[in-house]
Amino acid sequence: MESCGDKRKNQPKEPSPNKSKCSKTENAAASESTEGPYPTYPRPTPEECGAVRDDLLALHGFPQEFTKFRTARYSPGPGVASSSPLPLVKSEPIHGEGDEFLSCPETTPLESRNESVLDGLVSTLLSQNTTEANSARAFASLKSAFPTWEDVHAAEPKCIENAIKCGGLSVTKTSCIKQLLKGLLEKRGKLCMEYLRDMSVEEIKAELCSFKGIGPKTVACVLMFHLQQDDFPVDTHVFRISKAMGWVPTSADREKAYLHLNKRIPNELKFDLNCLLVTHGKLCVKCAKKGVHRKKVTSDQPCPLSKYCCITEFKRIKE
Fold first, then answer.
1. Catalytic option among 7, 90, 178, 217
2. Do 219 and 240 have their domain in common?
């Protein structure tokens, strides 16, 4: 078995940093969008992605909290065989299950309907800088206080803040939600975002980013979880583990890691691999962020990622 030092030596060298000034030209930005920020960086390979996916699936099973999104992604239409590439092996949930995912009209009362694109976007906004449990409680409280998005739009900001305060940053999140609904009503004439389902990925990104307060990570989560697109969000767990495995250069920030990983990871692996990396980052003691106490993996097996990286590198990675 290779030593830690050997693995560091064998990692591909990261590209030389760009010596140009901080402002990018439009041509440079376009090139990065099409080729990725590290076009000569060879990892991860498709084989590595598949192997890590399989190893984490064997350890955890497929995470139960993501099964509703996986069902929406792979559920066949009437008379069509399922296209699911993996069995739905369920692991113990990290938090309580939410509503089942099914598209439905935006004007249905929030507390009694299934999740729509606008529901997904707002729930993603509420998940920022808090735990899954707290964000789920905040969204449930919002649904209970305001039956429809029209009610949310008409409500006083303070009332919304009170409804979502359990999720933290209620003033900032309320402002973002109010601006989103106001802008959506002005642009589309109704509080509905199902039109995004008919757009390309690039069109969806441009549309969502046109709303103030909607950033790249939120867009990526909406694309993958709520629009069933092949995208690979990079949260703190994915970012930390990807760096430790040498899948991105050590100097990469989260935005460049997102662009690079989306270029390198095969589309058919993105959803399952992302969900499993997030789950592993939360449950594995060795891979968890230093100082953060998480629920331990209920298995005597060693961390399967030790085959791909020096786990002690997790302690030195800057997020």
1. 217
2. no
CA angle at 11 for the pair 6 and 17, rounded to the nearest 5°:
135
Annotation says 217 is catalytic: yes
Helices (H), the chain: 4-10, 26-35, 46-60, 67-74, 117-126, 132-145, 149-154, 157-164, 170-188, 201-209, 216-221, 236-244, 254-264, 267-283
* Domain enclosing residue 258, as ranges: 4-8+37-75+231-316
Give the tokens for residue 68.
Answer: 């509703």
| Same-domain pairing of 236 and 208 | no
- Structure-block tokens of residue 80: 């069509």
Q: Of 187, 211, 226, which one is at a domain's C-terminal end? A: 226
Nearest-angstrom CA–CA distance, 260 and 44: 9
Structural domain count, the chain: 2
Any idea what DSSP says for residue 115? B
In this predicted model, what pLDDT tens digit does every residue of 77-106 receive, in sequence order? 544 444 555 544 433 333 333 333 333 334
CATH number at residue 53: 1.10.1670.10
Q: What is the pTM of this model?
A: 0.76
Q: Do 178 and 101 contact (CB within 8 A), yes or no?
A: no
Which among 207, 226, 245 is the end of a domain? 226
pLDDT in tens, 1-31: 333 344 444 455 444 444 433 334 334 444 4
